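Example record

The entry below shows one chain as it appears in the dataset: sequence first, then structure tokens.
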Amino acid sequence: MKRFFDFSIALIAVAALTPILICLAILVRFKLGSPVLFRQMRPGLHGKPFMMYKFRSMTDARDVNGSLLPDIDRFTRFSSFLRKSSLDELPELVNVLKGDMSLVGPRPLLMQYLKRYSAEQARRHNVKPGITGWAQINGRNSISWEEKFKKDVWYVENQSIWLDMKILILTIAQVYKREGIHQDGHVTAEEFMGDLDHGH
């Protein structure tokens, strides 16, 4: 039932959003460069890797030696618009159609974090990762990573089609209001998972 729900909604969304996706692709190409899509291996169901797609949100600006500039120097006003509106995540609908992701589930982090989760936190991989999730509508970047992982596990234990519908509706409302997008002093995943790796 969940797979049918995911596929149906994603197919309708892709069909309805095709003009927007084309316009975004053109804007990304001219404002940020190519390739238009950012591709990266992420852990899926049971940690199995899959290729996740997003619109690129940074330029490839380099210094005189040809090295990439720091992220902050490659992040533009258009980049900020993509992130705050969550439009950069629309290509993940393709991942949903392919069956790599669900519309709702724990957000997929990086492959190198797999060995750093506690046994309890690793339960977040007992379901497919999602474009949005319980943690995203309950604080997103305004809550700690410990709390995010707890909410991910709560979703695993309580998932249902009705809960997915509630999360999708609240996600749309949250994106519209742009709530929880950024929090000053927020610890990044890299910083938090690095702390875990060092036993802190």
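Notes for this example: Residues 181-188, 190-200 have pLDDT under 50 and may be disordered. The two ends are 41 Å apart (CA to CA).
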